[in-house]
Amino acid sequence: MKQITLLGVPMEEGAGRRGCVMGPAAYRTAGLREELCALEYDVDDLGDVTPSPVTDIATGHTHLKYLPDVAGWTRALHAHAHTLAQKDSIPIYMGGDHALSLGTVTGHVAAAADLGRPQYVLWLDAHSDFNTPQTSPSGNMHGMPLAFACGLPGFPDLLGKPLPATLDPKKLCLLGLRSVDGGERALLQASGARAHDMRAIDERGVAALLSPFLDAVARTNGLLHVSLDVDFIEPDIAPAVGTTVPGGATFREAHLIMEMLHDSSLLTSLDLVELNPFLDDRGRTARLMVDLTASLFGRRVLDRFTSSY
Predict the structure, then answer these.
(1) Residue 159 sits in which domain range?
(2) Is 125 annotated as catalytic?
(3) Are 49 and 72 contacting, i.e. CB atoms less than 8 angstroms apart?
(4) Residues at the annotated binding site for Mn(2+)?
(5) Among 81, 105, 160, 191, which is disulfide-ready with 169 (CB 3.0 to 4.6 Å)?
(6) pTM
(7) Is 129 a catalytic residue?
(8) For this structure, is 80 an active site residue?
(9) 262 in catalytic set
């Protein structure tokens, strides 16, 4: 039987506002495990991560918010991800804000290096999260995970050790961008990553943008980590996020991406991030994220019951 491992990350320190701590519980309440079991997966829920204790971490960037807390989460998640990546199961990290990817992405990159395989990352987000401590205007660390994973300079010792391996930006694809800070824009453009904003989706469609990236993963026998941020989606249908940006992906665009990922059989790990149930409308964002995850793991449009909302 196909294996999936759920791991909750009740983390909100990277986001700068309260609420994401409730994300893992919302996914469980919305029936994520049950939906995956209905698709004939063997699902193991490991419960919630607890952060490692970090009391003293040095940095010259005093505007970084909740730095010891974020470092504690990063160290714990890096260790969990490195371990889970070596098992015959697909881990789903139920967040929690996007700072959780400081640990999950770097853990999977390190495990891929151990295996001698290339690690690819698909970033579905309104924001590029490519800030460094120097370029970040807010100091919120949920805007920094990709820069950290790619080994950009200026970060404090989040792992308590050097990064074992760094993500090659040329193996990174960002889809759905519509809010990028000036400093991180320059870093992103210089990195060589594939970065597609909503205009590119409007002009070309998600299939034309995603297919070449998936082809590259398959061609090189790569591992694929997908990080899905709630704010990738149009906030009119997914309001439960603290960083809403109008003009996001539609219901069908988001489902098409999930269906293409399933058809590719390339997914090896998944982040579900930035769900803030405190901002939701009767749980509809949590249910939408569960529906998208079900599409990613093989639920077809023809399998859906008709319902009204």
Answers:
(1) 2-302
(2) yes
(3) no
(4) 98, 125, 127, 129, 229, 231
(5) 191
(6) 0.96
(7) yes
(8) no
(9) no
